[in-house]
Amino acid sequence: MKKLLVLTLASAIGIGLLAGCGGQPAAENTGSGAPSGEATELTLWLPIYQFGDGISDADFWNEKLDAFEAEHNCTVNLEILSWSDYATVIYTGMLSGAGEGPDVVYVTETYDLIDAGLIAPLDEYITDEDREKYVFLDQGAYNSDGQLCTWPMMAGNPCVIFYNMDMLEAAGITELPTTWDEFYDVCVALKEANPDVWPFIQSWGATNGVSAMLASFWPFFFQAGGEVLDAEGNLNLDSEATLEVLSFINKMKESGIFDDSIVTMDDPNGKFVNGEAAIIINGTGNAATYTEQGINWQCSLGLEGSAGLATNFSVDSLAVASYCENKPLAAELIKYITSAKCMDDYHEQIYGMPSLTTDATYTEPEPFQSMYTNDADKMHVVPSFEGSASFMDQFQQNVQGMLMGQLTPAQVIEQTMAYYNEQIVS
């Protein structure tokens, strides 16, 4: 009998009703259930994704898990969590260990979990067939030894460039730019044609650095060949790629593409929707809103920088707890959850996202489906790293200083890295 709990932070910490991995020792279990005939138990934590009137997350997964339980002679105790303080709930629960924390868990922020040794490497459970079939497998999170620790479950919504084609055509622009130089020239032409409209807009006044950098920095960083972490897993933002991006952003301000209000801009999407901006970089999930608002839009995956075409996208994943007593079975559960037999129905009934496997049914509208099928290797995840939120807040503040003429691009890097090294990792 599966258990279902809808958790909040208080219930996760205070009530302590969470069931852990079953009592069968890993040495006695091959991953196909309990050899003694007694059912092995696994606890699975997933967040809520059904925000409509359809089948609930719990009912959907309980039905799907019946087949897995029967095949593997096991019981999966499913717990659906709210999004309130989700990362804290996960971390707290996993610190509690076996008997209270999950065996398989949906993770969004991974640095602290990996650094604390709370999730297990998955490499030994990955087959050659898996690597061929799972489109985004390499975009999971890795430990300092280069071992894959998370298995992508929700991958998508890359930051793409949306263009208001009516505005471009009014400025005599008939083809979308493909390079940074072409993009800049398009912005200049748009500014000359309509000085009252933002040619291109970014969100350097967002409420936090994570949001500010999401669409304003990371797409360009990957196009410039940037690597967020070096081979040892250390932050690698003191780089030529960072300088290249900051110089390009600063050029936008110096040439009047951005005005002074760019440092307080916190709603670029609203400007694009209202016809006050011609170009925006945003997640693909915003396309439906643009269509509903009657915008004649086109988009491209990104621009070609010095390292080629690239952009960033988001990946949330599944992980196996390091204390789980039956890791092979837990890995099999992850593969089952992310298989086409589950995900096809999940994307239709619960939450639409790009397909994870080559045998899945593709349902994304064009032009996005072609991006996922043809350009998955050009979409990059920003990995979790120590103090990432604090670093990005400081980076945003220093970029604002640059856009106000107080710092050079090189000084932005120097001062942000000094803060990071002295205040976060020292």
Can you give a write-up of this model?
- By secondary structure, the protein is of the alpha/beta class.
- The protein has two domains: 6-156 and 315-375, Periplasmic binding protein-like II (D-Maltodextrin-Binding Protein, domain 2, 3-Layer(aba) Sandwich); 159-312 and 386-424, Periplasmic binding protein-like II (D-Maltodextrin-Binding Protein, domain 2), CATH 3.40.190.10.
- Helices cover 39% and strands 14% of the residues.
- It has helices spanning 9-15, 57-72, 86-96, 111-115, 128-133, 165-170, 180-193, 209-216, 218-223, 240-254, 268-273, 287-292, 327-337, 340-349, 368-374, 388-403, 409-424; strands at 6-7, 40-47, 74-81, 104-107, 151-156, 159-164, 279-283, 297-300, 304-305, 308-309, 311-312, 314-320, 379-380.
- The strands form four sheets. The chain has a six-stranded mixed β-sheet. A three-stranded antiparallel β-sheet has the order 7-6-8. The protein has a two-stranded antiparallel ribbon with strand order 9-10.
- Helix 2 links the parallel strand 2 and strand 3 (74-81).
- The protein is globular.
In short:
With 426 residues, the protein is an alpha/beta fold. It has helices at residues 9-15, 57-72, 86-96, 111-115, 128-133, 165-170, 180-193, 209-216, 218-223, 240-254, 268-273, 287-292, 327-337, 340-349, 368-374, 388-403, 409-424, and strands spanning 6-7, 40-47, 74-81, 104-107, 151-156, 159-164, 279-283, 297-300, 304-305, 308-309, 311-312, 314-320, 379-380. Helix 8 packs across helix 16 (388-403) and helix 16 packs antiparallel against helix 17.
